[in-house]
Design brief:
- 25% of the residues lie in helices and 24% in strands.
- With 564 residues, the protein is α/β, with parallel strands linked by helices.
- The chain folds into three domains: 261 residues, 3-Layer(aba) Sandwich (Rossmann fold), CATH 3.40.50; 159 residues, Ribosomal Protein L25, Chain P; 115 residues, Ribosomal Protein L25, Chain P, CATH 2.40.240.10.
- The strands form seven sheets. The protein has a seven-stranded mixed beta sheet, with helices on one face.
- The longest helix has 16 residues.
- The chain is elongated and about 100 Å long.
- The protein binds adenosine-5'-triphosphate (ATP) and magnesium ion.
- Adenosine-5'-triphosphate (ATP) binds next to α3 and β8.
Length: 564
């Protein structure tokens, strides 16, 4: 049976184009819950950011922009064990690169330890928190589970005065790690386990990268995070789905700590991509095991890796917008990310000639020792990019696969007797080839027709194939790195033992490519289309003027289609 459309086209568009987070914010502003919008990105500095974080950054920044609000970058560095300056610096660089402007609002949650402590004292004074001497193991046992309510701690009814003294003692270092904790006094019978008197402060005699040894008690995430948001006047605290069950606790904390205009938490589904590794733990392991060349190895989808590979902030934004936000977890096809970078680069980048698997093409009737400079359009689809001059001479390099002695049907490139166009130059007719003793082709021979020069208006006859080339004498040697996905979804991302099932062909280093001379001066992060071979970007780590290294960002063709 045919389904009937209920909503007229326009109405449908409006509701579809505003995602559920925007709808919530619209409502909050209309009802006067908030008079401004402020969002934040709160990374833990324990690794490099990846494409999933990019989604969160662009979502939060985009909302702030849309509502004329502000966006903060805040390091959630309340956990003294893992933080590293390297991660702080890389995260700042990545957020900036994505264009999410936090202006002067770069914050560290550890700077709020004093206020968090005061909040805890306030809760104790209100009879809403208590110091508990149960061990971690006992606390777990007492907590109960989904089917069984929890049991109250025997320390739950300590007096306010005793709790204040004990908590101060915790702060002053009178107790060992794990000896005492501060717990919120909520409801041990709550169906939500997060509400069963959660621990909010623990003793940990550890040095903190920012506060040093000033503190030996540290707040737990579920207590610290809402306070951090409230201190910064965040209105909409956007996080991922796994925190949905923690929302009642979030609300409890900001309410009981009596913040005005308290922030509210809204959850969305994490971004997952097929054929890549997004979990911080997995990426870390690949880096530590030396399987990849650091956190920015172009096969990874950290933001640093995507940048090194040649992805642009615009392409990542396009991708995130295409994916949209949702409440349901799902995996996005990696091909969609590739589609976005192709779309972004298509009209922006010059189309250059680079031969990845070179064989010589000798034009026997072209004058020896002569070189012409031929004007070649930089981008046939975008005349604004102008032209460049490319040297042309008697000896060129072409792709080995553009010649076949005995071609199959529908092969329109070089084979004895066939004529093709050399892009931007002349028609040439293949006359044969030279081979070594193993039968490997060492040179292809042809003749050219001077009448057919590109741009001369020649219309005498047509050819079916056009191939790219570089002039042998002027060509610049380069290395090209070709990539495949590091894991293959169809073969299974994980082995039986839980390790990653890695694709052994994820990196192919092609030495001795020849690129046209204009590419000789290419600098780190410059990117180009190499005609017929894909988009390439100068590697920022390994490329030098003496040894150019290009990363293939993406090939030219894709099976991926998007309905615009
Ligand atoms: P990972 O799962 O890779 O270890 P994380 O969630 O531990 O990442 P955080 O530094 O805690 O990393 O995350 C910072 C912010 O980024 C959080 O608000 C988190 O919800 C968000 N975030 C993390 N992963 C994703 C993802 N895959 N998609 C969207 N947002 C994400
Ligand atoms: Mg985390």
């Amino acid at each position: 049976m045919e389904e009937k459309r209920l909503a007229p086209e326009t109405e449908e568009k409006e509701t579809v184009s505003r995602n559920f987070i925007q709808q919530e914010i619209d409502k909050d502003l209309a009802e006067g819950v908030y008079d401004h919008v402020q969002t934040r990105f709160p990374p833990e500095p324990n690794g490099y950011l990846h494409i999933g974080h990019a989604k969160s950054i662009l979502l939060n920044y985009g909302l702030a922009q849309e509502y004329g609000g502000k966006f903060n970058l805040r390091f959630d560095d309340t956990n003294p064990t893992k933080e590293k300056t390297e991660f702080v610096e890389s995260i700042i660089a990545d957020v900036r690169w994505l264009g999410a402007d936090f202006e002067d609002r770069l914050f560290f949650a550890s700077n709020y330890f004093e206020q968090m402590y005061e909040c805890a004292v306030k809760l104790i004074k209100k009879g809403k928190a208590f110091v508990c001497d149960l061990s971690a193991e006992e606390i777990r046992e007492y907590r109960g589970d989904f089917n069984n309510p929890g049991k109250e701690s025997p320390y739950r009814n300590r007096s306010i005065e005793e709790n204040l003294i004990l908590f101060e003692g915790m702060k002053d270092g009178l107790y060992k790690d794990g000896e005492k904790v501060l717990r919120a006094k909520i409801d041990m019978a709550s169906p939500n386990i997060n509400m069963r008197d959660p621990v909010i402060y623990r003793v940990a005699h550890m040095e903190h990268h920012n506060t040093g040894t000033k503190w030996c008690i540290y707040p737990m995430y579920d207590f610290a995070h809402p306070i951090e948001d409230a201190i910064e006047h965040i209105t909409h605290s956007i996080c991922t789905l796994e925190f949905e069950d923690h929302r009642p606790l979030y609300d409890w904390v900001v309410r009981e700590c009596e913040f005005e205009q308290p922030p509210r938490q809204i959850e969305f589904a994490k971004l997952y991509l097929t054929n890549v590794v997004t979990g911080k733990r997995y990426i870390k392991k690949l880096v530590e095991d030396g399987i990849v060349d650091g956190w920015d190895d172009p096969r990874l989808v950290t933001i640093a890796a995507l940048r090194r590979r040649g992805y642009t902030p615009e392409s990542i934004k396009m991708f995130v917008d295409l994916v949209g936000v949702s409440k349901a977890n799902s995996s996005v096809d990696y091909a969609m990310l590739e589609y976005c970078i192709r779309e972004d680069l298509k009209l922006k980048k010059p189309r250059m000639m680079a031969v990845l698997d070179p064989v010589k093409l000798i034009i026997d009737n072209y004058p020896e020792g002569q070189t012409e400079e031929l004007p070649v359009p930089n981008n046939t689809e975008n005349p604004d990019l102008g032209e460049r001059m490319v040297p042309f001479s008697r000896e060129l390099y072409i792709e080995r696969e553009d010649f076949m002695e005995e071609p199959p049907k529908k092969y329109f490139r070089l084979f004895p007797g066939n004529e093709v166009r050399l892009f931007g130059a002349y028609f040439v007719t293949c006359t044969g080839c030279e081979k070594d003793e193993n039968g490997k082709v060492t040179a292809v021979h042809c003749t050219y027709d001077p009448e057919t020069k590109s741009g001369s208006g020649f219309t005498g006859r047509k050819v079916k194939g056009t191939i790219h080339w570089v002039s042998a004498a002027e060509a610049v040697r380069a290395e090209c790195r070709l990539y495949e996905n590091i894991v293959d979804e169809e073969k299974g991302k994980l082995n039986e033992d839980g390790t990653l099932n890695l694709n052994p062909n994820s990196l192919t280093e092609v030495e001795n490519c020849f690129v046209e001379p204009a590419l000789g001066s290419a600098k780190a992060f410059d990117s180009f289309q190499f005609m017929r071979n894909g988009y390439f970007c100068v590697d920022c780590k390994d490329s030098t003027p003496e040894h150019l290294v290009f990363n293939r960002i993406v090939s030219l063709k894709s099976s991926f289609k998007i309905n615009k």
